[in-house]
């Protein structure tokens, strides 16, 4: 028996030892004292990226790092890949755990309105390349002029339809095939036609979480000309007659369902696999990423509006640097993102890997790429980038919760307006508190 | 010169001291973990619950405001209600179901008993995430097996969005929870039934008791300790169900599956309200402490 | 009269058997669905009419599971092992985590359980009450302080952050204490009168007698730690530090409806522990019942 106990003890000790070994090794962002540029001058930094085009693909990202290391062998970059379902939780736990990444790749709603507003990010104003579009830069800058995001790419979020099914249902007559637009009336008629042709799930208002909610926001606000936030980005305005009318129309329409069990990524996959006939969360990168799985023609569409001219939701992505109180790591992080954005040739490749549009004029980007040309049609329709309104996190949460309640309600305009009002009040309260 | 009694007291004193030191040395390794990673965080939890704590700034002392807000937060009450429903449904159902299965299979041939016991235990070892994933697929609104079976057998006339419908979501969660929690009680009951004093059962039969009477009057009292133990572990299990909620519904739709456990997580990592989340944790801990005390008292009485 | 009861009970017996058989099949079904699903082609998976048996067995799901993420096999200091599929590393992490939690818990709980059962000391009631009170405490309650503590100790995002809270969970101590109380005190006393020290009294007399209780504790802790998704979710972030449960959950977040891929991950997570369970089934059931019946 003594032997057994001795063995147990020995095992525990071995475990503890490997633990110590493992610990120093497994710490992706070592504590400050460990990484004063070590003897050999190497610095280890971490890059966490949300799924932005091929920036979720290990091979692509590693090749960028390999190219970078050819120039800067002294900076080691560890990559972690985030998703939109758990990504925020993961970053937030990491921040709370004192283990925030050095570089994060996402958009202004997180980098400026969330982590930036909490004072966790470094100002990158001196790194913005010349020629960056003013509108984009404006969205990456906070009220005090600090740039918390070095913008890389942008897109106008649109929607998509299954062209073959629409053709089969004789619904193409409701679409302006040249400009990829339609009016609100045509939209509902088209949905009805597809539904009547035997497709029960034409479009789905997904509301299981915040993922991809730009799609549902754009759909609701454009149908009857409502708005989401005021132009000054100080308050939310979505509790309007127009939006209530839009939601009521969606509730009443055959073939449109509210599904609180899915988020945008599920919607996209259900669209790609043919279960849904349209996707409200779509852009060029979705078509590229799903190219292998798609066995029908995808037709990108602008969101429907009464006059056929919607105000599309923009998406901007770029790099932010967390302030981890470590000069060496901050410098290394900046060196890396400067490398990715400064030189036109490298930058063009970086942009192409996102499958989105560049944020400054660059030669040779997407040359001869018809798909990108098709999606570029959406750019002129891009509307206000209101995702940096204060209280954004709360506003988003309130939005999908509101959709869940609306989906389960009687669908009357009064009920819906009350739900919208409740959600807006909570969001505005959060905006004021910030 | 010390008197006899003094000597005695001295040596008892030394003995007591020795016993105390030895006891604490034996306890030490455990206490390090227990105090360090359960009690101390619990203390911190109570402490932080008095602060407005969030990411990226110093905590602000606000006294009992978190608690005040908590009691007027409708979602908190919904979460409390849902947690109570989960516990109140799953605990008795688990106990009754496993008792029934155990009493039926314990009469079967040994091979059958152990085969069934093994099968009912499988979901426990499969792992909560793997189980959750497959159920998610089976419950799927568009190509899940439940809608197919329901429609084919005529039980439902159109597809039900099981996890997306406030009427069904909590029920679905409880159903999955049940499949993962009956395994252990069945094993326990089978062996408890084996250990029941045969002579007593036979004596009862001779006295003309029906099998049903024999069961309730003779076997059931003998299995009381097992039942209590099962009650305790099933309660703990039901309170802790988190993976199911997080991976299947995230508390929705319309908060119909929001539990306290998930609401704490939600407040902490989606709304960054650490102090508020901690206040909720304190309330939950108090509720659970009361429940445990009651169960323990019940156990002592029996 | 007697015949009537006999027929009645026979009918009940057969009915119960059929019913239990059906329920047992429905318990087996999810497992069947995981394993067949992991070998199905996409059309089979998305079919609205369930494909009960794969029309074509493919390993594509496993291939994409292994190709998705990669991690080094091990890292000791600056020495980095060969790169392997992330899923394999996750499996290794999970086994290591559960085994370490099991060993540490058994050791600490056996000692503490013994002390609580057989020693009279100041604070005994207090400590035992705390243990009972904390036993039912869901870990979510202390998640925020625990997270801050782990990060202060520099353990955040290491596998130890998922192990330590399991070891601190007092259920094992409770179990062994209950078990040890059934052992006659005289035996320990006798050994001590023979002049054996405290430690020898524990290792030579007590430990062999509470071994079944320790076995139960080991099984509980292993399964508990393997399934402790919540702690893992909070404490681990790097791809190379994930556990298999967490890995599948992450994949689910990225490819929510690619059920083929998710089932492949689930099968990978479930099958090893299922094999262990089926082989050691006897010990499992024994261990579980020991813990409770004696307690």
CATH class division of the largest domain in chain A: Alpha Beta
- For the CA atoms, what is the radius of gyration of chain B? 26 Å
Quaternary state, please?
heterotrimer
Radius of gyration of chain A: 24 Å
Q: What is the fold-level CATH name, i.e. the topology of the largest domain in chain B?
A: MetI-like fold
The two chains with the largest interface, and their residue counts, are: B-C, 95 and 97 residues
As a percent range, the share of helical residues of chain A equals 40-55%
User: Which consecutive residue ranges of chain A, at least 5 long each, have pLDDT under 50?
Assistant: 11-37
- Following the backbone from N to C, one meets helices and strands of chain A in this order, namely HEHEHEHHEHHEHHEHEHEEHHEHHH
Structural account:
The complex is a heterotrimer of chains A (434), B (302) and C (295). With 434 residues, chain A is of the alpha/beta class. Chain A has two domains: 41-155 and 316-380, D-Maltodextrin-Binding Protein, domain 2; 157-311 and 383-433, D-Maltodextrin-Binding Protein, domain 2. Chain A has 16 helices and ten strands. The radius of gyration of chain A is 24 Å and the shape is globular. The relative contact order of chain A is 0.16. Chain B has a two-stranded antiparallel sheet with strand order 1-2. Chain C folds into two domains: 2-37; 71-293, MetI-like fold (Orthogonal Bundle), CATH 1.10.3720. Chain C is 73% helix and 3% strand. The chains are: A alpha/beta (434), B mainly alpha (302), C mainly alpha (295). Chains in contact: A-B, A-C, B-C.
Question: What secondary-structure arrangement, pairings included, does this model have?
Answer:
The complex is a heterotrimer of chains A (434), B (302) and C (295).
Chain A: H1 2-26, E1 43-49, H2 58-71, E2 75-81, H3 87-96, E3 103-106, H4 108-116, H5 134-139, E4 150-162, H6 163-168, H7 184-196, E5 203-206, H8 213-223, H9 241-252, E6 256-259, H10 264-272, E7 278-282, H11 284-289, E8 298-301, E9 313-321, H12 327-342, H13 344-354, E10 357-358, H14 370-376, H15 392-407, H16 413-433
Parallel strand pairs in A: 1-2, 1-3, 5-6
Antiparallel strand pairs in A: 3-9, 4-7, 4-8, 4-9, 4-10
Helix pairs in contact in A: 8-9, 9-16, 12-13, 15-16
Chain B: H1 4-48, E1 51-52, E2 60-61, H2 65-71, H3 74-105, H4 110-126, H5 128-138, H6 145-152, H7 169-181, H8 183-195, H9 198-206, H10 211-222, H11 224-239, H12 243-248, H13 260-269, H14 274-301
Chain C: H1 2-37, H2 42-46, H3 60-68, E1 70-72, E2 75-76, E3 79-80, E4 83-85, H4 86-118, H5 124-135, H6 143-152, H7 160-168, H8 171-181, H9 185-193, H10 198-226, H11 229-235, H12 244-254, H13 259-279, H14 281-293
Antiparallel strand pairs in C: 1-4, 2-3
Helix pairs in contact in C: 1-13, 3-13, 4-7, 4-8, 4-10, 4-12, 8-10, 9-10, 10-14, 12-13
């Amino acid at each position: 028996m003594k032997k057994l106990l001795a063995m147990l003890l020995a095992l525990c000790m071995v475990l503890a030892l490997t633990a110590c070994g493992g610990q120093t090794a497994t710490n992706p962002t070592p504590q400050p004292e460990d990484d004063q540029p070590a003897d050999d001058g190497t610095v280890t930094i971490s890059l966490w990226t949300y799924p932005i085009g091929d920036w979720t693909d290990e091979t692509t990202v590693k090749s960028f790092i390999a190219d970078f290391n050819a120039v800067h062998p002294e900076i080691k970059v560890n990559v972690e890949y985030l998703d939109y379902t758990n990504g925020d939780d993961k970053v937030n736990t990491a921040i709370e755990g004192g283990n925030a990444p050095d570089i994060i790749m996402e958009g202004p709603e997180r980098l400026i309105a969330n982590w930036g507003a909490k004072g966790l990010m470094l100002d990158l104003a001196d790194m913005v390349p010349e020629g960056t579009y003013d509108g984009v830069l404006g969205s990456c800058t906070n009220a005090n002029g600090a740039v918390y995001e070095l913008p890389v790419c942008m897109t106008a979020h649109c929607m998509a339809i299954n062209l073959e099914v629409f053709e089969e249902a004789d619904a193409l007559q409701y679409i302006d095939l040249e400009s990829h637009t339609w009016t609100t009336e045509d939209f509902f008629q088209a949905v009805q036609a597809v539904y009547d042709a035997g497709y029960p799930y034409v479009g789905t208002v997904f509301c299981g979480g915040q993922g991809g909610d730009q799609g549902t926001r754009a759909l609701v606000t454009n149908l009857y000309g409502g708005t989401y936030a005021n132009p000054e980005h100080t308050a939310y305005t979505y509790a309007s007659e127009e939006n209530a009318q839009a939601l009521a129309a969606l509730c009443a329409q055959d073939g449109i369902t509210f599904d609180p069990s899915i988020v945008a990524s599920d919607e996209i996959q259900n669209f790609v696999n043919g279960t849904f006939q349209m996707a409200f969360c779509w852009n060029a990168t979705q078509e590229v990423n799903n190219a292998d799985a798609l066995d029908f023609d995808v037709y990108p569409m602008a969101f429907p509006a009464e006059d056929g001219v919607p105000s599309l939701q923009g998406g901007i992505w770029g790099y932010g640097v967390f302030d981890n109180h470590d000069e060496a790591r901050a410098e290394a992080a900046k060196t890396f993102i400067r490398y990715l954005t400064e030189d036109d040739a490298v930058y063009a490749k970086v942009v192409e890997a996102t499958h989105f549009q560049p944020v400054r004029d660059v030669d040779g980007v997407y040359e001869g790429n018809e798909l990108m040309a098709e999606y570029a049609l959406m750019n002129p329709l891009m509307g206000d980038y209101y995702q940096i309104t204060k209280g954004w996190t709360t506003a988003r949460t309130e939005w999908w919760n509101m959709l869940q309640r609306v989906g389960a309600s009687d669908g009357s305009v009064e009920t819906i307006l009350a739900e919208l009002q409740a959600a807006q009040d909570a969001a505005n309260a959060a905006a004021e508190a910030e | 010169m010390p008197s006899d009694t003094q000597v005695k007291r001295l040596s008892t004193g030394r003995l007591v001291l020795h016993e105390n030191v030895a006891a604490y040395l034996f306890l030490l390794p455990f206490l390090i973990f227990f105090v360090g990673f359960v009690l101390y965080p619990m203390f911190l939890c109570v402490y932080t619950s008095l602060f407005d704590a969030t990411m990226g700034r110093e905590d602000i002392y606000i006294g009992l405001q978190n608690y005040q807000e908590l009691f007027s937060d409708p979602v908190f009450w919904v979460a409390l209600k849902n947690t109570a429903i989960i516990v109140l449904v799953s605990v008795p159902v688990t106990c009754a179901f496993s008792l029934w299965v155990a009493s039926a299979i314990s009469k079967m041939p040994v091979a059958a008993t152990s085969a069934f016991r093994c099968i009912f235990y499988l979901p426990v070892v499969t792992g909560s995430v793997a189980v959750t994933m497959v159920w998610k697929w089976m419950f799927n609104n568009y190509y899940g097996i439940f809608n197919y079976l329901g429609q084919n057998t005529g039980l439902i006339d159109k597809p039900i969005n099981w996890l997306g419908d406030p009427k069904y979501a909590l029920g679905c969660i409880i159903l999955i929870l049940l499949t993962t929690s009956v395994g252990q009680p069945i094993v326990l009951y089978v062996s408890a039934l084996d250990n029941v004093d045969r002579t007593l059962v036979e004596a009862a039969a001779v006295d003309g008791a029906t099998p049903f009477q024999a069961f309730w009057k003779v076997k059931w009292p003998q299995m009381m300790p097992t039942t209590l133990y099962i009650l305790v572990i099933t309660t703990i299990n039901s309170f802790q169900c988190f993976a199911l909620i997080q991976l299947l519904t995230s508390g929705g739709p319309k908060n119909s599956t929001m539990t306290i456990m998930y609401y704490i997580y939600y407040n902490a990592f989606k709304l960054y309200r650490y102090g508020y989340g901690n206040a909720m944790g304190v309330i939950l801990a108090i509720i659970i402490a009361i429940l445990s005390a009651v169960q323990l008292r019940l156990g002592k009485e029996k | 009269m007697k015949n009537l009861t006999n027929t009645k009970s026979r009918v009940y017996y057969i009915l119960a058997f059929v019913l239990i058989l059906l329920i047992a099949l429905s318990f087996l079904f999810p497992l069947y669905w995981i394993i067949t699903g992991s070998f199905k082609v996409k059309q089979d998976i998305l079919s609205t009419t369930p494909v009960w048996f794969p029309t074509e067995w493919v390993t594509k799901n496993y291939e994409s599971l292994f190709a998705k993420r990669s991690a080094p096999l091990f890292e000791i200091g600056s020495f980095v092992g060969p790169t392997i599929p992330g899923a394999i590393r996750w499996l290794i992490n999970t086994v290591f985590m559960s085994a370490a939690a099991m060993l540490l818990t058994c050791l600490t709980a056996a000692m503490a359980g013994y002390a609580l059962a057989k020693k009279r000391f100041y604070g005994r009631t207090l400590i035992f009450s705390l243990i009972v009170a904390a036993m039912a405490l869901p870990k979510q309650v202390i998640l925020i302080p625990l997270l801050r503590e782990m990060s202060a100790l520099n353990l955040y995002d290491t596998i130890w952050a998922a192990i330590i809270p399991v070891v601190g969970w007092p259920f094992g101590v409770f179990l062994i204490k209950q078990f040890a109380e059934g052992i006659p005190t005289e035996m320990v006393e006798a050994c001590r009168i023979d002049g054996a020290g405290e430690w020898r009294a524990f290792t030579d007399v007590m430990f062999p007698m509470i071994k079944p209780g320790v076995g139960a504790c080991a099984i509980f802790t292993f399964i508990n730690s393997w399934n402790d998704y919540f702690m893992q979710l909070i404490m681990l972030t790097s791809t190379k530090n994930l556990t298999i449960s967490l890995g599948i959950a992450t994949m689910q977040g990225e490819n929510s409806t690619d059920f083929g891929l998710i089932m492949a991950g689930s099968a990978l997570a479930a099958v090893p522990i299922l094999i262990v369970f089926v082989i050691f089934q006897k010990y499992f059931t024994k261990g579980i019942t020991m813990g409770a019946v004696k307690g």
